[in-house]
Amino acid sequence: MKTKLIHEIRAVKTKKELANIIKAQRISEKVLQDTLVKLKTGMTEFAAAKFITKRFIKYGASILAFPPIVAFGKNTANIHHQPGKTKLKRGNAVMFDFGCTVHHYCSDMTRTYFWGKPSAKQKKVYLAVLEAQNRALKKLQKGEKRARIIDKVAREFLTRKFKNNPARPLDGFKHGLGHGVGTAIHEWPNFKPKSEDILPVGCVMTVEPGLYFKGFGGVRIEDMVLITKSGCKNLTNTPKNLKNVILQSR
Predict the structure, then answer these.
(1) Strands, sheet with 223-227, edge to edge from the N-terminal-most edge strand
(2) Lower CB density within 10 Å: C or N end of the chain?
(3) Which residues form the Peptidase M24 domain (predicted)?
(4) Domain boundaries, the chain
(5) Could you name the CATH architecture of 6-247?
């Protein structure tokens, strides 16, 4: 009989642990909605990040899972962008990546929006990333538990869509498809091209494909899912279809 390692035991969440993660996610969703209402042309990334932090405190989640990522325009091409003085302009992509903790358990979510009508290229990139995520989620729903296969489904779709050489990874998708979440924001297992991880039933994973183009911008869409015996359950409720992510600039 195989002895389970600590990271394998830790990956499988109890009902109480899962309830904490879901509660943290629901708070994050409320904060995101409040932030979308607060956004206005000329607002800086830094001001938006400050608002997000204060809103988490208002909802009783003063300990964040990580510093909020807020990126406007070309800054969305930077995967781990730190909010700065960049001001929001009409036509910008807007990326939010944040989470909080409830009793030490983390949430993690990314959404990309458009401040006004997106360009044809912005729309193409967004719909491609959304489709890549949906394909990965469908594979999980069918019961696939091999992490590298899930990563491959999303990565190969994006490679084909942007006509890159299939022999090498897509230049614009520079990170793994996702990771486990628990008391740490990044836990085992991991969705990566060469991952040997097998997803255990009861673990919580992020599914977060992204495309990033220097000088243009990027799109990332991230949901958290619970791995079940027969498939998966999406724990993220915030809408992500194209209609919902086009915001009225004001």
Answers:
(1) 187-191, 178-180, 204-207, 223-227, 232-234
(2) N
(3) 20-229
(4) 6-247
(5) Alpha-Beta Complex (3.90)
